[in-house]
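[Discussion] Sanity-checking designs against the backbone

I'm trying to build intuition for which residues belong where. Below is a C-alpha cell string of 347 positions. I'd appreciate it if someone posts a full sequence so I can compare it with mine line by line.
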C-alpha cells in the first residue's frame, strides 16, 4: 500500500488580499513626497531632520511595545503604519523644533494613543493628532518659532546649523535667530485681529501670498495634489476631503462677505495651516474616523466646523488637531445613526 499523500492547507481565504496595510501606507508616503520637497524648498533642511527623528522614535517605541505585548516585530514594524504616523507628525512641527519634541510626540502617539488601546486597528483617537496636540499644549513656545520662508529669510540655516539648532538649541553667532524665525500666517492673523487690526492690514505683510501664507499656500497645493492621487488610487474615499474643504468654504464665505475686515477669506482658511493635509491624510484614517458614507461626510463637516470655531474663538491659531480628536470621539455615535438599512429590515 502506497503512503498517503498529504497537502499543505491554510485557513480561508486562500487567495492573498489585494490590499495590504503596508501597501496602503506606502501609497500615503509616496503622496507626501511632493509636500516634503516643498517644505525643504521654503523652510530648509529642518523638516528632514524632524522626519528622521520622528521615524526613529516611532519605530523604537513600536518595537518596545510589541515586545511588552509579546507580539512579533517584523510584521508590525514592516507595515509602515508607525512610519506614516511619524512623517505626518513631523510635517506638523517647526523645522528647528528641539529633538525632544519628536520624542514626546511619538511617545504619546505610539505608546499612549496606539498600543494602550490595543494596537493598530483598535485606537479610538488618531495617533498623529494625539502627538501633535500633546506637544502643542506642553511646548507652546517651541512650537511657535517657525522659520521665515525662503523669500523672506536672509539665509536659511544649512545642514550643520540646522542640526545644531535641533540638538543643542543654538545656531552660530553670525545668524540672527530673530531674523530667521517668525509667526505662522495663521498666528500672525490671529494676533493682528486681537490687536484690533483689519484683516486687510494684517494681510499687507510680506508673510502672506496670493491666497494663504507665503510658501504655505504652495505646500497646501502639493498636499492637495498628493491627496487627489490617493483618491484616484482609491486609497481614500472622496467623502471626507470634500466635506472638510466644502464645509470650510461654505461657512467662511458668507462670514467673509459680510465682514471682510474681520474675517479671513475662504481661501485663506484653506491654504494656511494644516487643513488640506488633515482633509486628505488625517481625517481619512479608517480606524479613528467614520465607516459609513454619510458618516464620513458628517465627520469631515465636523472637522471643518470645529477648526473654524477654534481659529475664530479659541486659543490656538490652527485648531485642526483638536478638531480631529473631538470628531474621533463622535465617530462611533455618527456611525450608529448613519448605518445603511439592512435588507429586509426597517431603519
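Best answer:
Here's mine. Compare freely.
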Amino acid at each position: 500500500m502506497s503512503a498517503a499523500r498529504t497537502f499543505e492547507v491554510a485557513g480561508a481565504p486562500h487567495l492573498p488580499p489585494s490590499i495590504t496595510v503596508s501597501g496602503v501606507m506606502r501609497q500615503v508616503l509616496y503622496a507626501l513626497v511632493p509636500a516634503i520637497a516643498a517644505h525643504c524648498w521654503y523652510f530648509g533642511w529642518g523638516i528632514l531632520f524632524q522626519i528622521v527623528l520622528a521615524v526613529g522614535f516611532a519605530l523604537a517605541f513600536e518595537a518596545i511595545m510589541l515586545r511588552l505585548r509579546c507580539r512579533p516585530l517584523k510584521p508590525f514594524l514592516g507595515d509602515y503604519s508607525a512610519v506614516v504616523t511619524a512623517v505626518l507628525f513631523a510635517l506638523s512641527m517647526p523645522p528647528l523644533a528641539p529633538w525632544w519634541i519628536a520624542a514626546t510626540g511619538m511617545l504619546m502617539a505610539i505608546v499612549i494613543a496606539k498600543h494602550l488601546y490595543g494596537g493598530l486597528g483598535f485606537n479610538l483617537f488618531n495617533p498623529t493628532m494625539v502627538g501633535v496636540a500633546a506637544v502643542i499644549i506642553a511646548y507652546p513656545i517651541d512650537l511657535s518659532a517657525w522659520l521665515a520662508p525662503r523669500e523672506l529669510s536672509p539665509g536659511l540655516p544649512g545642514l550643520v546649523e540646522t542640526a545644531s539648532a535641533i540638538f543643542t538649541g543654538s545656531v552660530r553667532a553670525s545668524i540672527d535667530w530673530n531674523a530667521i524665525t517668525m509667526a505662522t500666517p495663521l498666528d500672525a492673523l490671529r494676533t493682528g485681529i486681537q490687536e484690533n487690526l483689519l484683516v486687510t492690514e494684517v494681510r499687507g505683510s510680506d508673510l502672506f501670498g496670493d491666497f494663504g501664507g507665503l510658501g504655505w499656500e504652495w505646500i497646501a497645493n502639493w498636499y492637495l495634489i498628493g491627496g487627489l492621487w490617493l483618491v484616484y488610487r482609491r486609497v481614500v474615499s472622496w467623502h471626507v476631503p470634500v466635506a472638510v474643504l466644502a464645509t470650510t468654504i461654505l461657512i467662511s464665505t458668507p462670514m467673509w462677505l459680510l465682514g471682510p475686515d474681520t474675517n479671513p477669506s475662504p481661501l485663506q482658511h484653506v491654504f494656511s495651516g494644516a487643513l488640506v493635509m488633515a482633509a486628505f491624510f488625517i481625517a481619512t484614517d479608517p480606524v479613528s474616523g467614520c465607516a459609513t458614507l454619510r458618516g464620513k461626510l458628517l465627520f469631515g463637516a465636523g472637522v471643518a466646523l470645529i477648526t473654524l470655531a477654534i481659529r475664530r474663538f479659541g486659543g490656538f491659531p490652527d485648531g485642526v488637531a483638536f478638531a480631529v480628536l473631538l470628531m474621533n470621539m463622535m465617530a462611533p455615535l455618527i456611525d450608529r445613526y448613519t448605518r445603511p438599512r439592512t435588507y429586509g429590515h426597517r431603519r
